[in-house]
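User: Second chain of the day. Same drill as before.
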Amino acid sequence: MSHEGNDEVKEGKIDLLQEDLEAFVIKKDKTVQQMHDRLTLLVTEIKTLGSKDWDDFKVTKKMLRAYAPKNPMLATYIRGKESYKKMKPINLLNELQFYEMNALDVAK
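Assistant: Same format as last time:
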């Protein structure tokens, strides 16, 4: 296969992953951890193919956008925090898990 063919295949894969990332949502029966893991896998794949488009903050924003329908008030609260623009995806995951665990305790 020629070099151009390899580049075309790579671009095609990047386009497909980009579409998956744009349409990314939390699935009803999945946990926040599972959502984070799935998003991380997609981002790692697209970065491996050479995309420079997905920095930590873009991943954090996408993750919070995907989570927002599950708890819009929490998503709005996190977006309003001073630390939001510097938040890494793992920090967002920890925060979402913390609030979900507290919500379970309150519900008991």
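The helical segments are 3-22, 32-48, 56-67, 72-80, 89-107.

User: Great, on to the next one.
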